[in-house]
Specification:
By secondary structure, this protein is α/β, with parallel strands linked by helices. The protein folds into two domains: 258 residues, Rossmann fold (3-Layer(aba) Sandwich), CATH 3.40.50; 186 residues, Rossmann fold (3-Layer(aba) Sandwich). It has 18 helices and 15 strands. An eleven-stranded mixed beta sheet has the order 4-5-7-9-8-10-11-12-13-14-15, sandwiched between helices. Strands 1-6-3-2 form a four-stranded mixed beta sheet, with no helix packed on it.
Length: 535
């Protein structure tokens, strides 16, 4: 699925009903690219931002792409990174698409190939660091680019074991750190943007990174990484914050178990680089499905994700941000109200539970405190009962897991960033628009914000519904994200006076049927989550 090379410039299309405009051609440092003109936008798809990570380049930091002669077509999306198809993913825009190790490409939507220096918005897709792609239909960049006169970029990066396997045997003098290949792919894409985006009408000094779920966690990791400093000026982590990175000892143990599944010696780097990608994927899935992995990881959850390696990350991102890294970057951070419902149903297949099962699940995060699961269940039962909210075991499970994985980490990221004396602004949101899918059981679930951010509600009607208020809210959200990318302030005519967040005044914009500003203290929920339970 590599793009074709054209030996000479493209001639005018023929007559008849065809588009008579000359296809856009842009010169980059690596060669010329030919895209397409679609209505009032120029679109370039499948642009390589790094050399294909194949053979000896597997399990290595990305390298700049090789230059090419002639004109390279950039008219088709590149393949998804190697991954398994997850049935049910169509609801949120994940489809069964071609995959390949040769996946390090990006896509650009721009209103003009000029020197207008438009704001640049770089999207980092989610998928638990094991699925997804920047070319998924949900992330179609045309609506944002057109509505806000901005340049939109979506990227692919290595995921799963190919993107995050930690094994010191894979290092050498040229590549001193293992793991975090997917994160370094993101850095490579941002460097490409800094160096090349001016030719596409963008401003390399006004770059916003935004992403959701693992993409939101990636945004926070980039905010806390010394390797990404200076590559972006604004950041929007959606449903992902700075708590998800493996300590070195756990990453090393996952690496040993991975080699054991493949029946390869842990120090056999040549075999790890030489075996078929499908074998890598099969071993990855075996690790993911092994209940012993869950017992090993505890609160860390994902076996293939960023690692505190002493290079890309010198500490957990939230700790780095507390120490002041990223203090001059503008931050807009938030979650949906009922994150866990979609993950529970689609990822884990859980549609019912009882009190004993919920208490047992909470105890997984007890760190030797056998009573913590019980205290957690009772605490949330008491809070919800006092507020008149549902107190059945499934509702308590959803509330606890939503807070544990998403909302409490987001709160702490906002607290950490707003507490610095840097120039960066801090804003918070809560998305509570509900999905009608599955007879409303999903509520304001994980990922429900995505079609509103990208204006792709028409493509996602099963997920978002067709009430006119849906499209009105999409306009509000798109304008807020666009204004933030342009100025660092998400306030709009429809959302005036969006106050900045402070740890002592946690102003939060609620985005949903009733758009409003609230003080989101939630001290009762915060009180039980000791720092050691999350960090």
């Amino acid at each position: 699925m590599r793009p074709r090379l054209l030996s000479q410039a493209i001639a005018h299309p023929g007559s008849g009903g065809e588009d008579h405009r000359v296809p856009p051609i842009v010169s980059t440092s690596y060669g010329r690219l030919q895209g397409t003109t679609e209505d009032d936008l120029h679109v370039f798809r499948g642009i390589p931002f790094a050399e294909p990570p194949l053979g000896e380049l597997r399990f290595r930091a990305p390298r700049p792409p090789q230059p090419w002669g002639g004109i390279r077509e950039a008219t088709e999306f590149g393949p998804y990174a190697i991954q398994s198809y997850a049935p049910g993913g169509e609801l949120i825009g994940f489809y069964d698409m071609p995959t390949d190790e040769d996946c390090l490409t990006l896509n650009i939507w721009t209103p003009g190939l000029d020197d207008a220096k438009r704001p640049v918005m770089v999207w980092i897709h989610g998928g638990a660091y094991a699925a997804g792609a920047g070319s998924a239909p949900t992330y179609d960049g045309q609506h944002l680019a057109r509505r806000g006169d901005v340049v939109v970029v979506t990227i692919n990066y290595r995921i799963g074991a190919l993107g995050f396997l930690y094994n010191q045997a894979l290092t050498d003098g040229d590549d001193a750190h293992s793991g975090n290949y997917g994160m370094r792919d993101q850095v490579a894409a941002l460097r490409w943007v800094r160096e090349q985006i001016g030719a596409f009408g963008g401003d390399p000094q006004n770059v916003t990174i935004f992403g959701e779920s693992a993409g939101g966690m990636s945004v926070a990791a980039l905010l806390g990484s010394p390797e990404a400093e200076g590559l972006f000026q604004r950041a929007i982590p959606q449903s992902g914050a700075g708590h998800h990175a493996l300590p070195l000892d756990l990453a090393e143990e996952i690496g040993r178990r991975f080699s054991a599944v493949l029946e390869i010696a842990p120090d056999d780097a040549a075999s790890l680089r030489g075996i078929p990608a499908q074998d890598i994927l099969d071993a990855q899935n075996a690790i993911l499905l092994d209940p012993r992995t869950r017992d090993l990881l505890g609160r860390y959850g994902m076996p293939f994700c960023p690692t505190v390696d002493g290079g890309f990350l010198d500490t957990l991102p939230i700790a780095s941000i507390r120490d002041g890294r990223g203090k001059d970057v503008d931050l807009l951070c938030g979650t949906t109200e009922d994150e866990w419902t979609l993950l529970r149903m689609l990822m884990f297949g859980v549609t019912e539970t009882d009190e004993a099962q919920a208490r047992a699940q909470f105890s997984l995060y007890a760190f030797g405190d056998d009573e913590f699961g019980d205290r957690l269940y009772d605490h949330y039962h008491e809070i919800r009962s006092a507020r008149g909210a549902a107190t059945d075991p499934l509702s308590i499970l959803d509330a606890v897991m939503t807070d544990y994985v998403f909302r409490i980490p987001a709160d702490r990221l906002l607290d950490a960033h707003s507490g610095q004396d840097g120039e960066g602004s801090t804003y918070a949101y809560l998305f509570n628009q509900q999905s009608p899918a599955m007879d409303g059981a999903l509520r304001a679930c994980h990922g429900i914000d995505l079609p509103y951010v990208f204006g792709t509600t028409d493509e996602m009607r099963e997920f978002v519904g067709d009430d006119p208020q849906t499209d009105q809210l999409a306009g509000f959200v798109m304008d807020a994200w666009l204004n933030f990318a342009r100025s660092g302030n998400p306030s709009t005519k429809a959302l005036p006076g969006w106050p900045q967040y402070r740890a002592d005044q946690r102003y939060t914009m609620v985005l949903g049927p009733d758009v409003k500003t609230i003080r989101e203290d939630r001290e009762e929920e915060r009180s039980i989550w000791g720092t050691d339970m999350l960090e």
